[in-house]
Amino acid sequence: QVQLKESGPGLVQPSQTLSLTCTVSGFSLTSNSVHWVRQPPGKGLEWVGAIWSGGSTDYNSALKSRLSISRDTSKSQVFLKMNSLQTEDTAIYFCTRELAHWGQGVMVTVSS
Amino acid sequence: DVVMTQTPVSLSVSLGGQVSISCRSSQSLVHNNGNTYLSWYLQKPGQSPQLLIYKVSNRFSGISDRFSGSGSGTDFTLKISRVEPDDLGVYYCGQGTQYPLTFGSGTKLEIK
């Protein structure tokens, strides 16, 4: 059974760095891509970036300068790091296996 | 970036009725490999998005045949027949042909 679960701090101060973890089960990171998608409160979906089965990454160009996605295949975990956070980064962050299976999401609020 | 335009923004339907949602892309979604990566998602209240349709017309595992997708190039349609109470939520189209992946702004389905 494919499962993904996001974890991380619920509150981050402006200008600080966000670190999120996506722990997966039921599939291999070396055979599937994992994407991050975010959703500001009451708004639509925005693709953040992805890490491919081979380990390469793609990022939303609007976020690329602040974003890093990596993984630890031995722990079945994917990591998202975003620096210089602003209030506009407040959103639910989802990780998803190829946009077919989705985690429950984690709410991140950027506020002092 | 490919802009996805969904219409209508919202619609209301009686149980057992049929609805159509339109999605138009600013560029052709036909990939160099010949595939068209247009998907449809449903986000029920308080839940993560769930994949309904991929590559225009293919139902994802476990999705009812009441949901059907069609279209080509830049114009796509999702049809829902025999609407049930569990169908309410926000429907999104999304394209995976060109990076960054992009989504439509959503269509909210309400049950009369």
Number of strands of chain B: 11
- Order of helix and strand elements from N to C terminus of chain A: EEEEEEEEEEE
C-alpha-based Rg of chain A, rounded: 13 Å
Overall SS class of chain B: mainly beta
The helix tally of chain B amounts to: 0
User: What is the assembly state of the chains in this entry?
Assistant: heterodimer
Quantity of strands of chain A, as a count: 11
Give the amount of beta strand of chain A, in percent: over 45%
Query: Unreliable segments of chain A (pLDDT under 50, ≥5 consecutive)?
Result: none
Helix content of chain B: under 10%
The biggest beta sheet of chain A reads: 7 strands, mixed
Shape of chain B: globular
Mean pLDDT of chain B: 97
Q: Helix proportion of residues of chain A, in percent?
A: under 10%
What is the rounded distance between the termini of chain B? 36 Å
Overall pLDDT score of chain A: 97
The chain pair with the largest interface is:
A-B, 19 and 20 residues
Major sheet details of chain B: 7 strands, mixed
Shape of chain A: globular
Termini separation of chain A (Å)? 39 Å
Count the DSSP helices of chain A. 0
Question: What does this protein look like?
Answer:
The complex is a heterodimer of chains A (112) and B (112). Chain A is mainly β and 112 residues long. Helix content of chain A is 0%, strand content 50%. Chain A has strands spanning 3-7, 11-12, 18-25, 34-39, 46-51, 57-59, 67-72, 77-82, 91-97, 101-102, 106-110. In chain A, strands 2, 4, 5, 6, 9, 10 and 11 form a seven-stranded mixed sheet that branches. In chain A, strands 1-3-8-7 form a four-stranded antiparallel sheet, with no helix packed on it. The N and C termini of chain B lie far apart (36 Å). Chain B contains no helices and eleven strands. In chain B, 32% of the residues are buried. In chain B, strand 5 and strand 6 form a beta hairpin. The A-B interface holds A 35, 37, 44-47, 58-62, 94, 99-105 and B 1, 39, 41, 48-51, 54, 60, 92, 94, 96, 99-106.
